[in-house]
Amino acid sequence: MKYIISESQYNWLLSEQTSPIKIGCQNYNKIGELCTTLVFPKAEADKLIAKFKPNADKEASEQIDNLIQKITSMGGEEGKRIAQKFSEAIASTKGQIQKVLSKYYSQVMYASCGLGSSVNSTTVLLEICGIIYSQFIKSWNDNFFMRNAASLAITSNNIKQVQDKGRNILFQVIDTISRTVLFYFLYSVKLPVQHRVSELQKTTPKCTKVIVTQTAECANLPKQKWYNPPQEYKNIGSGYTNPDEKLAMSTYSPKLVAFLNNLV
């Protein structure tokens, strides 16, 4: 059976099929699903890198310096040599640590802008911890007098206390490096990206697929104030994951304990 419709009926059906979806306060999340069509300009991401990376490097440098000073005051009698060697290891590898952070900065920025894959911050944390720990072992082994003094000071009677102090110092190192990584990527990448996206959204084309009918507080808007929201950028996010401190600790704590045991 065939139905014949008039041109006006056809136009009405067509308009119904393409009419915007009404969005209330409880469905604001659907705006992103329906209106995410724009690609963040790479040139804008490059501008953000040039603007914010120098300050990020400066802040990271200061946090590393604070860690170097902080560790020297830790450890007590049993752990003072461990604290001293960790402090020396961080000081001598500071440039390498900064290179690791710098290496990932652009990748995190591009990922935050939806222009690449996210960075696993645990990988960054483990890489930095590996640099510090390797230097810690090297500087200890390279110092004949320190090694002999440690062998005399660490005995079967106090090895448990030394291990506890060593693990505590290691935890402080990992915790501070983890927070440095987070600061480097959060305040120097994620927040600037979010701010710039908010600025650009003011001039992006309207999303005609959606019409907003309520305020964020769920108050109904008069029909004459219904509006099409701006189109949104694709895949804007953090660009990184949170570093796993527990994994870093479980990776290096056994190594440190085994090393200390060999000094007895």
Structural features, described:
This protein has 264 residues and is mainly alpha-helical. The chain has one domain. Helices cover 67% and strands 4% of the residues. The strands form two sheets. Strands 1-3 form a two-stranded parallel ribbon. It has a two-stranded parallel sheet with strand order 2-4. Helix 3 runs antiparallel to helix 5. The chain is elongated, with a radius of gyration of 28 Å. The protein starts with 6 loop residues before the first helix and ends with a helix. About 3% of the residues have low confidence.
Task: Summarize the topology.
Elements: H1 7-18, E1 21-23, H2 29-35, E2 36-38, H3 42-72, H4 76-92, H5 94-112, H6 121-142, H7 144-153, H8 159-201, E3 210-212, E4 232-233, H9 245-261
Parallel strand pairs: 1-3, 2-4
Arithmetic mean pLDDT: 85
Can you list the strand order of the major beta sheet?
1-3
Number of strands: 4
Give the domain tally.
1
Computed Rg? 28 Å
Fraction in helix: 55-70%
What percent of residues are in strands? under 5%
- Regions with pLDDT < 50 over 5+ consecutive residues? 9-17
Shape: elongated
Please outline the major beta sheet.
Answer: 2 strands, parallel
What letter string, H or E per element, gives the SSE order?
A: HEHEHHHHHHEEH
**Assembly category:** single chain
Straight-line distance between termini: 95 Å
What is the structural class?
mainly alpha
Number of helices: 9
